[in-house]
Specification:
It is built from 13 helices and 15 strands. It is an alpha/beta fold and about 450 residues long.
């Protein structure tokens, strides 16, 4: 018999609901797999064994009854505050809005998903717990900031995980790890008990092994039905500059082939001043996330995080105003784009996941730190608030590559239709067994 964690999220929920899988046995199997296989992956540094059993005992009938999930460290639970990958409790314990929606759906929170420190990075290599590693190659980054979510779902340690996305933080780890990662529409999910709640960029994210599993999580997070439709007959907007420029050749090829295989009508588009999106986001994103931060934490941070923090604290007001003007302009531009296209598509990340010990990528323009080109690809969705998703589309250099799709405000259902169509076209199966992470070791996680 296959291991219960080799079932996808919907399969687990169905099996628990029809009695073919005991929820207690599923939880025990999940906790055992985390202990046996997480090891060097470092995806789930805090495990909630007793709290999860208590949740299961009180779980109501709902679409996720008895299904174990992990929750990013930016969200509070009644028994643990949010630390955002640092040594400090940045928000006190309490039932965050996301936790409440998961509890009402009958889900069980099995542990904390690892994240990049303060959410200020796209690699996942900086954290109080050390780097989150990629199950496809332990020397590679899992992505950030929700790297633990992507890594655990890809490694079949958990069937679904809740992350967040302030500048690609769900989509980039999904692309790096070869799973589906959704950024919800800004404001569609409760923001209480969330360290990103102060941000006009941050939105809750959902991770699944395929788009249909991710749809189920998104319905729970947004507390509304996202009925499946036909994703085959969509108009796909392609913005060549800058999103299809300066890419790893294999990443570009996999993404181009996926769009061609989908059979969508391709609409060539231009977005005026979209090349300013990354700079505008960088000018505003970090200062928002740092609002209210106790600055005595600075000496404890990773040097790169500390440098970014200090830079953000020195951001002049005039730069914020200019960023807001760019943002307003791009909101108008993307609204016009969606008059001609149903979804927009470009590579999630311009290159395969970088090494943990050297977080740089090789692009036609040369060697670059991973963060700036990742933000170039990701931040339009955060600036405009629209939903976005990353869908795995094969391998580049033996590592996963992801295609990013955006849809209009509130149109998660359309976005997921497109993603499910890609899954069907490219042959995704969330229930295919996954081997242990290479070199993974048993580990004991602190509570």
């Amino acid at each position: 018999m296959s291991h219960p964690q080799d079932l996808g999220l919907r399969a687990q929920a169905r099996a628990v609901a029809d009695g073919s899988l005991d929820a207690g046995e599923l939880l025990d199997a999940t906790l055992e797999r985390l202990a046996e296989r997480d090891g060097e992956l470092n995806s789930t540094p805090v495990v909630f064994a007793e709290e999860a059993r208590a949740m299961l005992a009180a779980a109501p009938d709902g679409p996720l009854r008895g299904v174990p999930l992990t929750l990013k460290d930016m969200f509070t639970t009644p028994w643990r505050g949010a630390h955002s990958g640092t040594s400090r409790e940045l928000l006190p314990p309490g039932a965050s809005g996301v936790f409440e929606r998961l509890r009402e759906a009958g889900a069980v929170i099995a542990g904390v998903a690892q994240q990049h420190e303060l959410g200020m990075g796209t690699t996942g290599r900086a954290s109080v717990w050390g780097p989150a590693r990629n199950p496809h190659d332990l020397e590679r980054c899992a992505g950030g900031s929700s790297g633990g979510s992507g890594s655990a779902v890809a490694a079949h340690l958990i069937a679904g995980s809740i992350g967040s996305d302030s500048g690609g933080s769900s989509r980039i780890p999904a692309a790096y790890c070869g799973v589906v990662g959704l950024k919800t529409t800004w404001g569609s999910v409760p923001r209480a008990g969330y360290t990103g709640g102060v941000s006009t960029f941050s939105a809750a994210g959902a991770f699944g092994r395929d788009a249909a599993d991710t749809r189920l999580l998104a319905e729970v997070l947004t507390a509304r039905e996202l009925p499946a439709g036909d994703g085959a007959g969509l108009r796909c907007g392609v913005v060549r500059e800058p999103f299809w420029d300066d890419l790893d050749p294999e990443v570009e090829a996999r993404c181009r082939e996926a769009v061609e295989a989908a059979g969508w009508e391709v609409v060539e588009l231009e977005l005026d001043r979209v090349e300013l999106a990354g700079a505008a986001a960088a000018s505003r994103l970090a200062p928002e996330l740092l609002a209210g931060l106790d600055l005595s934490i600075l000496p404890e941070l990773d040097p790169a995080t500390r440098a970014l923090t200090q830079f953000a604290l020195l951001t002049p007001a005039v730069r914020m105003v200019r960023a807001d003007r760019v943002r307003a302009h791009l909101r108008r531009e993307i609204a016009r784009a969606f008059e001609r296209a149903d979804v927009l598509a470009w590579p999630t990340s311009p290159a395969p996941p970088p090494r943990v010990d050297a977080p740089v990528v090789e692009l036609p323009s040369g060697t670059a730190l991973a963060d700036p080109p990742n933000l170039r690809q990701a931040t339009l969705a955060n600036l405009t608030g629209v939903p976005g998703i990353s869908v795995p589309v094969g391998e580049a250099g033996g590592l996963p590559a992801g295609l990013q799709l955006l849809a209009p405000w509130g149109e998660e259902a359309r976005l997921l239709d497109a993603a499910e169509h890609l899954d069907a076209t490219l042959g995704s199966d969330p229930n295919v067994a996954s081997p242990p992470a290479p070199g993974a070791q048993s580990s004991t996680h602190p509570g």
